[in-house]
């Protein structure tokens, strides 16, 4: 779509006028700088503000856009006062006092996804959920490539949505967070899914119902709804008059699992797509991810054989049920991306025998009692660390043996001392990482480093 058509749509959809609008980009991380590049390319008048003294992208921003006003070290009230539109990065809460005041004075919230949706005329597939969304997004991107599509993959994962516009793709696959969706009104995806809903980000959302409501925005419009019928909250999101495809790893659905003879298959209705054993990923929850990706692909006409070939060669993502090593008959698995209870529960449920679990960190306001049933069923021992380790210990109430560790190296040493041949040690923290680490990647890397150190 050319710039003239885009600016016309922005004016029509968002009252964003090239001549009179003044946009304030709030937050200068990956999303903020992608929005700044987009606005500059279209010639829209904008400024940038960030509460941090030195935002992550400030050096790049100053080099690329030296003439654009930028205010750091606190939100600039004067900039908010004159703004007609606010592009608020997902990391910045909409409850921020300056934002609330600007909205009361007539400023309009615009997300990067709204800008993106006004700039493309090819199908968008939108993927959200508490867990698995990065895996499904990447899976589907690989499927589309193998099916011969020029595809742009990103959003909350990897490349920001607005930076994908440079690729001139014929299909876009976007991972979207609840923070992106809560400020998005124009998305009308050709197909969309909420993979699952479990307690997460309750430090930002009022409660689980509000969190689910934000997730449900991914279904805005009239595209195909891909529904996980194993999750009652998601199953309740069905809308009358819409085309719906369902998936399940527990019961019959449009996409499901079934035995044919002695072989268990990923199924589409009565058609065997591929043996489940040929999916090269740890954990049964990854079968659900594969079924969701297949349903989304079928909904837009991707070739089933190409999709299955992509699944058979899909190696998974770093820090998501990633096998680090097998040492002395003990398997070590890095699932540091499990930053909430639902992700940890899904990881545990994927095992047929009990595991040694390393967990803990920042619980983000979640109720750790919800973790107890899965740990009682699937863990032989738990090693706890981080800020809210005490909350998990209290919730477990001695239902399994619990050890305490000060850091990852100690957690790995304790786990190694209690592990026996045939055991799996699973890092699946059920908590965020920022209490002790830069991010979940850093936490996972520290785990891998400590595990590989056992070889010495």
How would you characterize the overall build of this protein?
The chain is of the alpha/beta class and 456 residues long. The protein folds into three domains: 3-110, Rossmann fold (3-Layer(aba) Sandwich); 115-312, Mur-like, catalytic domain (UDP-N-acetylmuramoyl-L-alanine:D-glutamate ligase), CATH 3.40.1190; 322-453, Mur ligase, C-terminal domain (Protein-Tyrosine Phosphatase, Chain A, Alpha-Beta Complex). It has helices at 3-14, 30-42, 58-64, 77-82, 97-104, 112-117, 133-146, 161-164, 178-181, 208-216, 232-235, 285-299, 304-312, 341-349, 372-378, 389-396, 408-418, 440-453; strands spanning 23-26, 46-49, 70-71, 85-88, 108-109, 124-128, 151-155, 171-175, 191-194, 224-228, 244-247, 255-260, 263-268, 271-275, 322-327, 330-334, 355-359, 379-384, 402-404, 424-427. It has a six-stranded parallel β-sheet. Helix 5 (97-104) links the parallel strand 4 (85-88) and strand 5 (108-109). The protein is globular. The model has no long low-confidence stretch (mean pLDDT 94).
List keywords for this structure.
456 residues, alpha/beta, Rossmann fold, UDP-N-acetylmuramoyl-L-alanine:D-glutamate ligase, Protein-Tyrosine Phosphatase, Chain A, 3 domains, 6-stranded parallel β-sheet, 6-stranded mixed β-sheet, 18 helices, 35% helix
Q: Can you give me a brief rundown of this structure?
A:
With 456 residues, this protein is of the alpha/beta class.
Secondary structure class reads alpha/beta
- Show unreliable segments: none
Number of helices: 18
Separation of the first and last Cα atoms? 57 Å
Q: What helical percentage do the residues reach?
A: 25-40%
Average of per-residue pLDDT values: 94
CATH class of the largest domain: Alpha Beta
Looking at the structure, what is the overall shape? Answer: globular
Q: Give the tally of structural domains.
A: 3
- What is the beta-strand fraction? 15-25%
Strand order of the largest sheet: 7-8-6-9-10-11
Task: Please name the CATH topology of the largest domain.
Answer: UDP-N-acetylmuramoyl-L-alanine:D-glutamate ligase
CATH superfamily of the largest domain: Mur-like, catalytic domain
Radius of gyration: 23 Å
Please summarize the sheet with the most strands.
Answer: 6 strands, parallel
Q: What is the number of strand segments?
A: 20
- In CATH, the architecture of the largest domain is 3-Layer(aba) Sandwich
